[in-house]
Write a structure and sequence with these properties.
6 copies of one chain form a homohexamer.
Chain A lengths: L5 E2 L17 E6 L14 H9 L5 E2 L4 E2 L5 E7 L6 H17 L3 E6 L4 H13 L4 E5 L19 H9 L4 E6 L4 H10 L1 E4 L5 H11 L3 E6 L21 H14 L2 E7 L10 H18 L2
Helix pairs in contact in A: 1-8, 2-3, 3-4, 6-7, 7-8
Chain lengths: 292, 292, 292, 292, 292, 292
């Protein structure tokens, strides 16, 4: 091939160009949105984020860290059999399990929120009853079923909760759900409505216990003014700065053994600002993880 | 017809599927935008809001109330003779008068702000000098005329003020108008520039007097970052949470005998976030009204 | 309810406001797109078509017929369990079967092309080996499986062909597929590449035999210049007039016992022109069917 | 002002920068769309066309003529009182009359089609029973009234026909209307359905009679594949080349005493291709007129 | 020309219709974006801002001042040779120098940020070592070169700093850059990361010294929720109100001898809200300048 | 890295996944648009085409050939110094020269049309006076300079013509240009206005002479109804089928030693149909080349 200047960085996420073997963090995409009930399109998030991530810098003035000083591998996207939900979750689970087995941290880019269940299953296989989940979201995601379907973006935290057992999940920013979901949350999880209050205390508590934590960020926890590019915009959310601060604290302070960032839907992001936010949150998350 | 599962809820606004006779609140659309001077399209708001409202939940965690526990009827949209403004206002007035006559509360979805005049006329016929108006807006809407036309979205509050008499209208959030409009406002109405300061005191005052109040919400009172989907975006507005809180307080605490939510323009709402806001404000407004 | 002028026509497709009992044709929507591999969104087609259909006239100067002279019932949309493909197909099949049982003609609005399989199954139950299919499409839709999934928009005609047996399906306008699909088509179906040549002869032949025909129109048979609003635009298609003429001839001349119009994806139809085309094709199809 | 290179051409239409006194053709905009029943926005057409016209060349290889060799004045846009339809038409009529009085040819850019009535009234005042109209459109525009309103985009040719008397109007390309409109057209006008057949004969006939002709081009006569940027797209229209040829023939061969180009709606023209077409048609029209 | 009501205001920015001779402030556009590395389109900003500015009022209730009471001239846009960057900067420099020579204040509408260098050069020619710069931005713009190019939107403040010398530039709101850029800033300029803290003190200091100040506002200093319409959205910015307050304080309190507002990219402003913000900031800036 | 199913095909163009050494054709992107005078954005074409190309099939039923049977290498995109036009052309020239040197055929994806000059220079270095160019375009591209700049998308064919000498270039489909450009074309090149007439004769002639031919396809040769996604839409172009047929004939029948496909501007391609066309033309071009 001609010896010349070629842009070779575009296929991977900003600064995630280490080799697999040397990396302690592995990014991968799960472009799945088949159970989305309102407006699909999150399957395009991983690809769009990779392309637009290069509009950001690798250096974070917030953390004074640089992705060029880290070792992160971008695996690309999983090839998922749209229309066969259980099989999709198995592929995600197996893939995450491979990464965890080598003591690397998988960071998944959704896709709809259901993909989290695959990642959580992989972690539960390894960590069992120790596993905890921190969940940022606008929605409870605690339905028992949705139009008769048990595996759905609207049921995903319910399924996780059933797997892990009671009081293992902390939900933050929640401002939408059926009444019974809020009641279920109070009984089986710990729910913080509307904002991130209580997060600092939780971090102290979990830090002390040093338990393995799965961290799932549904980006619609942000206010739609900040993040319009999502399938189900829910007014009344938190600000960008609050989310960024929280992500840095959670990933920098806790034993995060896997994480995901889900529900960017590029179709509804005409300006690209939502994609930029998703990318910057992921950059800060990766930098915080790699600084541990 | 085949006995089967059909989505029958889409034509009405979320949870507004009671019978007319049993309902104490009646929602209806006034899809009119013919006097809009800058960018038309608010006529599409009622139809778009009905469709997208089903992306929200019927339950409000803010008020701990559920639309499934209310009796609200959605009348559909008025058929309005575009191009004959006076006739349009008559149709709105007559329709609102019918609802008021049966001691139900009409809640109108605009359309441009001029439709408010039809609703106010119907209320003035019944309540006369007792009638008061609370007006949320970015714009004064107090011009004497607009390009020689007296019935316009830019004159609507002036016309209401002339009908009701001096000092019957409180304006909040106002940040745009000609200089003479601000002076007129100070003399004939009560104007609160830029935000909702003073609203709590007003609520106390009006509550004591127990006067009938017409509540008109021009959604462009919100900052364009929150609500870009409107014909005349005016930077410097209030946040979503402030508006939601205010709507709940006004509708939950006062003798609101009619209300409207106007100026959503779906053309400029590529992401659907503005429509989601309009729907959620209406949901909270309806829940607060029905909780009285 | 107030005795007044309300737009009551919007929830149904243009002119399809007869009672179920008196109707010989039943329109219904199948808003499903979960197996779409490239760009989802066809689930929004039925709802968007109903709303925009009122921009057309009920009268066709092409056929000199008027929908106001017909008896057509619009059933609304099926509520489909996204994420459970087999169940979705069962619901469609059962619903179509109910309509067919009463000797009415079901006309389905997709949704992705897979929904056709539900309709064809219902017809095969009634008509067995007599059943024929006329298929307009850009794509062969003859894959054996897609990413390991057998029920997919890319396999639907293969599944139909396996159900009906060899040489029961005529495919027109086909210009995209894997090589083996074109070979399969030649062996098991009758394939007309690129355009509608041969349709007139087929109509004569089938007319004489008076066999029951299922007519499925994938709108991407049209050139993307004419119909950009679809998930997988495939350049090199036919013109609008050719499709309209063919629809009138097929529906006016043959024993069509069920039909569908699929693959409009409103997300990619910024101008609304593709939706207008889908609506007009459906209007002409319904008028031709009702004129028999 | 600093002596420097400033782009001073943008406010006028491409090449229309002569002085008023020396010009034989006057372009002006009528940004009115208040009676538009389906989707408004044509008011933005004159401004958008002026801006985008500079993407074309002043030279036409079709006519081998150049706008730089012509004397055309662009008057700018009329300031129209939105919401007072009759007053809008008076302003247009008066303005066109001023131009005609000085034996210049007014060429109006709409706006919705109703603006034509203002121009036709001005011409009828001068030319009386001699006046003829050539009308290109997808729609009959022959309703007696629309939602009870007599002055509407859907009634404009009916109003013109009533003013001029029977058999003075030739309609081409018509493919949409109520049944009674087609019947009215046959009786009172001359209607050519679907295409421009018969135009050549008409040109011969009118040329010989040397009668003054008003030429009105509703751009939706074009197929929506060619011209999606319009409020009411009607599939089945003519091609760009047919329209361009016809415009050159009509304007080059007949005694055109006024003309208009209407119904571009930039909102639905994401790519700008429809605006480019409107501009090029106007360029060819102006060049053909100026070549007489 | 006919004596009639014509909208003659559209080609100039809202209220900037004074004669050149009588004006103390001159607005002009620099529609250049050729070095934009991520997403071009800022060249359209001046033209779009002029058109949309008329959706605002001339009166500011914040400053209680009215553009109708000022004397401001809008020069139009410079004609710039795209593709020849150095020549573009020369044209800007010469044009600004002409205005400055007559003791008028040039206010430039970008275009990309590189255009600032032209304006700063003109000011430096006149004011030499006294010249100071206040710089609002999300990005440091301090690269030494970008893809081997020294004149770039990403190097513009570096070039200005090299021209003026050390410690003459104050940067506010900065939240993105390479690590070395932040270090360079600390050494050669004064940098205020993330927000506008320190601005009040700076204003006091500069006011006392009465030094001539060039004020450059890169609108992406705003949070993308507020201002999505820009080429490189960078989450974590300031609010609209903070920017407006700061602009009024800087322009009202200091010896501003030139200013610019850059980096609006209308392509990414589907709703027009970002353009409205750019226009309102410019209105407040002009009113504050004219009130000195 | 985990042994699992990963989508690894996205970064390259559909089916172009051979090794460099074994390939006879090399695709590369030249994402440059800095001289674009009207609407920039073509720099995004290569990246968008690669992503969307996977919505097509590798098999062409037109040529009965499959990309899976070819050896084509996709080099990725050149990293180009925006703002330094001459340097950009050098990089393109050097890169193309490397490929040509190894007797491979470079196929470049633009970018704006100016990139062609880089490719042509590389070919002229090798083939000298034997080199011929076939040029499909809506525009003459024969200006002497554009706003004082000699290297511009509007001058590119003039520069090529000056390099090769008279009567070496055949231009097809041309329908826009200044008058003097058309005259220059007649004198120095061979110009075929409006369509592709004369192409068959030319192919015979060149085939016999067996001269090396550079083939440059400006996609705006297509009618904007077919291909709206371009910066300067020019109505009156050719159909998709005509272009596809011509591409197959030129590339299958002649000694094409380099080719390019330029001027797709994804910003103006909301539906993705223009990108699909660009991809399909490139697929057919590659298949025809590889079939020689």
């Amino acid at each position: 091939m001609p010896d010349n200047t070629i842009i070779s960085n575009l296929p991977v996420f900003l600064g995630c160009d280490a080799e697999y073997e040397e990396s302690s963090i592995c990014v991968f995409g799960a472009p799945f949105d088949s159970t989305t009930s309102f407006r699909p399109g999150t399957r395009f998030a991983p690809q769009t984020m990779r392309a637009d991530s290069w509009g950001l810098e690798t250096y974070s003035p917030y953390q004074d860290r640089d992705l060029t000083d880290t070792k992160i591998f971008d695996c690309g996207d999983l090839e998922l059999p749209l229309g066969d939900t259980e099989q999709v979750l198995s592929i995600i689970e197996d893939f995450a399990a491979e990464i965890i087995k080598e003591n690397k941290t998988p960071v998944m880019i959704g896709g709809e929120h259901l993909v989290t269940l695959g990642g959580v299953r992989a972690c539960y296989d390894k960590y069992g009853d120790d596993l905890r989940i921190i969940h940022f979201d606008a929605h409870t995601d605690l339905r028992d079923e949705m139009f008769g379907v048990e595996l759905s973006h609207a049921t995903v935290i319910r399924r996780c909760s059933e797997l892990l057992g009671d009081k293992k999940i902390w939900q933050f920013g929640i401002r939408s759900g059926e009444k019974y979901e809020f009641e279920w949350a109070k009984k089986h999880n710990t729910i913080n409505k509307f904002d991130l209050n209580g997060l600092d205390d939780l971090i102290c508590e979990l830090k002390e216990a040093n338990l393995p934590v799965y961290f799932t960020v549904d980006l619609d926890v942000l206010d739609p003014s900040v993040f319009p590019g999502t399938g189900t915009p829910e007014p009344g959310g938190i600000s960008y700065k609050k989310l960024q601060d929280a992500v840095i604290k959670v990933c920098g302070g806790l034993n995060i053994i896997a994480a995901d960032v889900v529900e960017l839907c590029p179709h509804y992001d005409q300006s690209g600002a939502s994609t930029a936010i998703a990318c910057k949150i992921l950059r800060e998350l990766l930098l915080a993880l790699s600084g541990r």
